[in-house]
Amino acid sequence: MEALVEHLENLRSQVAESLGAVLQQHALHHAKDDDLTAAIALVGDIARLAEGLLIEGVGELAERSGGRDVDTRLTTRQGCHNLNELVRRLMLCSSQTAGRLERAQRAVAPMWDALTDEERPAPLPALRAALLSGEVGIDGVLAVGPTLLEMRDRVSVEKVLLADEVLAAHARGEGPDSAPPVDADVLRVHAQVWAIALDQDGSEPHDRDITPRRGVSLGRSRHGLIPITGGLLPEVAAQLQMIIDATVGSPASSVRFVDSDQPTADDSEDHPRDDRTRAQKAHDALALALSVAARSGDLPTIGGAAPTLVVSVRAEDLTADTGWATVEGTDEPVSMTVARHVGCSGVVQRVALNHEGRILRLGTEERLFNRHQRRAIAVRDGGCLIPGCGVPAGWCEVHHVTEHSQGGPTHSDNGVLLCWWHHRFIDTGPWRIRMNRGVPEVQAPRWFDHTLRWRPVTRSRVRMLDLVGRRT
């Protein structure tokens, strides 16, 4: 078997020499577009071939590490706790990568007869052939393998092997629909469709299996953020995804201010931009959904009251805009911006303490903007007041244009609709809002409107219709 190691060492030297020359000459940077794309495709082919050999090798490691006698297992003899640790040490990879290789080999690694030492077919032989020929890699194997293997107890072997053949054909571009070779994501969709078609009775066992594993956990604060981990049931994840798509799917770039008398240079540039990442938008959509749910009145009560986010702050700190506030439910302090945001759209109750901590005076709750005021403001504004934001009125919060702590009245002439994100950052962001005889006006940042003019803004169809009527 020395020839095996020698052969692979020679192969490694050749690959290192060839790739080193490509990198040293900056060949990728200087290549034409067609040559660059062809080169990347070839590198992908090479990588898939290497992954095929890796998966085959990990399968052999698993075979030699699966005996009942712990002392005779390869993992034990190599001083490793399990197969994952052995693969990590051999490949210098992460536990996640080692785990992916373990899962992949279960679907495509060959079996060996313990008595005759003869090779038996892999669980998914067609997929294995596609792997060894470089037509699929580890992503493709994991897109298909677990789904088909999970059905074996409920679906005949013949049907599983038929699905294996058709999916491998899709990977080669020889599927029934004559489509080109498909990537791993499309293979996963095909595999799921086959599972639905073949495993009609598998939905209930699957549901019973995944339901106990659902859960969401909030971790300890890390650098000011609270990590969230867990797993959502498919329908819950789909609902959350719908909320995210609904709240971040409206592109602000379709709206901007243009002067009718100067429609020249700005017609093609300086569109409004949203610098949030997709993950940040998802966070803000979840925050929006939680705030809507909390004020809906449909949630269970806590101590007879609706679930209310309680933020505590010293009055002098809030006035001076210094120091920190605290939030009930977490040990992580929050900024004055958060305190103002919560107080602006929620309930304020003032508590007076002496220097020893005794409660001297307990004020009554001051509800900010009752439902009648909110409806009126919604009729006037139509939704989030910031141009290009598509959040509807029912999901918005009411913002005090002049802060309540600075004497701003809780009156429709001092309230505007803002979505959670724009409300959270209105004090630190580039947008400005003012009231002009009860009508909200917006000053956009310079990159949005170079004139920096204050302009009345609305998404209310009633007001828009009235404006159209005046012009016609």
Task: State the gist of this model.
The chain has 472 residues and is mostly helical.
Question: SSE layout and pairings?
Answer:
Elements: H1 2-24, H2 27-30, H3 33-64, H4 74-77, H5 83-91, H6 95-108, E1 111-112, E2 119-120, H7 125-132, H8 138-150, H9 157-172, H10 184-198, H11 203-210, E3 215-218, E4 228-231, H12 234-248, H13 278-294, E5 311-312, H14 315-320, E6 326-327, H15 336-345, E7 347-348, E8 351-353, E9 359-362, E10 366-367, H16 371-381, E11 397-400, E12 415-418, H17 420-424, E13 432-436, E14 439-443, E15 454-456, H18 461-471
Helix pairs in contact: 3-6, 5-6, 6-8, 7-9, 8-9, 8-10, 9-10, 12-13
Q: What can you tell me about this protein's structure?
A:
47% of the residues lie in helices and 10% in strands. The longest helix has 32 residues, at 33-64. The protein has 18 helices and 15 strands. Among the domains are: 22-205, no CATH class; 234-247 and 277-302, no CATH class; 371-471, no CATH class. α5 (83-91) crosses α6, α7 runs parallel beside α9 and α8 (138-150) runs antiparallel to α9 (157-172). It has a three-stranded antiparallel sheet, with no helix packed on it. A two-stranded antiparallel sheet has the order 1-2. It has helices at residues 2-24, 27-30, 33-64, 74-77, 83-91, 95-108, 125-132, 138-150, 157-172, 184-198, 203-210, 234-248, 278-294, 315-320, 336-345, 371-381, 420-424, 461-471; strands at 111-112, 119-120, 215-218, 228-231, 311-312, 326-327, 347-348, 351-353, 359-362, 366-367, 397-400, 415-418, 432-436, 439-443, 454-456. It has 472 residues and is mostly helical.
